[in-house]
């Protein structure tokens, strides 16, 4: 495996001026990113999540060479992003969900053609990639519409295409599904999943929509207050924060639920109770419930949103696992 | 460059309205300046006779949109909204890319905005036709240099946005100074030599507008025309280097607005 994105001790400070009294203003230094270490291998799909203001976008801007870090080292595709920004730009693709990289006044088709010139992509290669994006992202119906007239979902599909036409090795996506409807979200996710399946493109994705992460990313990086608080799989996150599968049981007639070792019982009503599985399997539990007049049983998988909400609202965790 | 041409050609009505406005103002300025010559009681003022003055006005009206003294705030707007990020993610230096786009824009303006006033003027006023064959090619070179120079100056004014965010102050100052001292409102040679020569040599302003127009109406001899174009070229080099330096410094302290 080859490390494509590496960062060590990455830090970015901003100066904030605070009004003190009538005329005086104090300068205060705020660390948006505070000692982030990263190592992402070629072909990995990594979700980078955190609450608003945690430092996600700032990290991405430093990795792409737009912002100069206050401290730390970065290497992306073997380049130093700030010093070699224009050379790195040929090797990476970037989509900022809240900003457009397309030409406001031009139709998508012409924007793509311009990008071919800017990135000096051979016409044949460009045509192949564009054809693939057109079919996977359904671009044809709005290819001749000026960008300013596109809906958000259409524009985002255009942005994704624009980021991929030069065949980047690394794709940075900053909230690519923000504000999109369900159908557009599915289109974008499906496209990214297909892209990831090829194993050629390394993908780093920030999002607030955890379904994006669940569908696309094996690895999850959680950042809070500028520091990485979790780096691992979604399962590891569940294990760490004590997420449990839950068995919900509904009865035909009232009956006392049995205590089962390895499962915590919560009685919701005389006809409905729940078990949190703390050690027992769902099968073991059902065997123990066999004598009850059961009307319905459902197994609820742990919800990543709950885990992340607990992570965001809790006291900042300072030790990464 | 093609992008710039294509982008500006999207707005056809604006182009027609602009050319019409330039032509209307051409009449106003022409009558005022011809009245100045008539009022002076001499055949020429500052080396301009009536035909040269009318030509100065009508070419100036056309050149205004090509050189584009004012009205360009694209970079500043993108700094303010944070969209400048997209410019920094391209594999081309921002100064180079904006310059190429601006040359495309100027090419479009040369066809659509320079031609109408230049064709209208001779129908109503005396016109000066160049006598020397070198004048027209020199004029073309001078217009290209003036466009690049003006782009550089506009870029620097816009780049103050990296520090100030709101560039209305620098923009108003630029509009005022470039108009008066660039030679838009009146030919700079109306001013005393003691003022004009330092202005020409020590500031880029006359090179933006006055130089190409003076070349067109052959106020000076050919060697002096060449010298003025060389001066323009020197200013172009200096201002573009300055743009690169300012852009580099700005990138080092850049804060992307809006997260």
Automatic annotation (TrEMBL), chain A:
Location in or out of the cell: Cell membrane
Keyword set includes Signal: no
A GO molecular function held by the record: ATP binding
Domain ABC transporter positions: 18-250
Record GO biological process: response to antibiotic
Keyword Cytoplasm (UniProt): no
Domain of life of the source: Bacteria
One Gene Ontology cellular component annotation held by this UniProt entry: plasma membrane
Keywords: Antibiotic resistance, ATP-binding, Nucleotide-binding, Transport
Membrane-protein topology: Peripheral membrane protein
The protein, known as: ABC-2 type transport system ATP-binding protein
Lineage: Bacteria, Bacillati, Actinomycetota, Actinomycetes, Micromonosporales
